[in-house]
Amino acid sequence: MDLYAKDINGHWHWAAGNFNFDDTITYRFSNIVTNVPLQEFRLYLPLYNSLKWLQVGVADETSFSFIEANTKAPVVLYGTSIMQGACASRPGLAWTNILGRRLDAPLVNLGFSGNGRLEPELAHLLTELDARLFVLDCQPNLYDKKYTPKPKLIKESGIQ
Questions:
Q1: Would you give the end-to-end CA distance of the chain in angstroms?
Q2: What is the pLDDT of residue 155?
Q3: Could you tell me which of 102, 92, 101, 99 has the C-alpha nearest to residue 135?
Q4: What are the chain's domains?
Q5: Angle 58-96-153 from CA coordinates, rounded to 5°
Q6: What is the per-residue pLDDT for 73?
Q7: Residue 89 has what DSSP assignment?
Q8: How far is CA 10 from CA 28, 36, 134, in A?
Q9: pTM exceeds 0.90 for this model
Q10: Which residues contact 51 (CB under 8 A, 6 or more apart)?
Q11: Can you tell me the distance from the alpha carbon of 69 to that of 109, in angstroms, rounded to the nearest whole number?
């Protein structure tokens, strides 16, 4: 997991966490370094592992509450495992999560490992979404095993 904190000036700060792998994996984030007050936190969950449950706690002298969901139109991302977050060393370093912090906008990440091939059915579903921006990154999966492009897949998708 990865924790980021936004200060009152809108700058994001990474919080290094200490973790313990016993029966239950425990993360403790206690070293957020900033000279100004913090106003918001984002916890990024594992990119490829599932959670069975999650409990969030804070120090006795502090409080914790959820903020209102961002109601701006989302940025919709569709593509391959690269978009999903593959190869990022930490969840917060997946390029889509970096983009989300920079734009301060909700993101819908439709990155699929081994897929994301501009399938016509999914391309048509995307047109039904009210997005502020679409990012399509299917190119790595539009090649055969010999790394020969498959332009037919792009043409068949109906995306212009």
A1: 38
A2: 65
A3: 99
A4: 2-44 (no CATH), 75-157 (3.40.50.1110)
A5: 145
A6: 94
A7: S
A8: 24, 10, 25
A9: no
A10: 45
A11: 17
Structure tokens at 4: 């980021």
pLDDT tens digits for range 143-158: 666 666 666 666 665 6
Output b/e per residue, 101-136; b: 16+ Cβ within 10 A: beeebbbebbbbeeebbbbeebbeebeeeebeeebb
The residue type of 63 is S
Q: What whole-number distance in Å separates Cα of residue 78 and Cα of residue 75?
A: 10
CA separation for the pair 27, 9 (Å, rounded):
27
**84-126, pLDDT tens digit by residue?**
898 899 999 999 999 999 998 899 999 988 788 888 888 889 9
Q: What is the mean pLDDT of residues 32-60?
A: 88
Residue type, position 49, single letter: N
Q: What one-character-per-residue DSSP string does 14-74 give?
A: EE-EEEEESSSEEEEE-----SS-EEEEEEEPPSS---S-------TTS---PPPPP-SPP
Containing 159, the helix (H) or strand (E) segment is: none
Dihedral sign computed on CA atoms, order 143, 144, 148, 149? negative
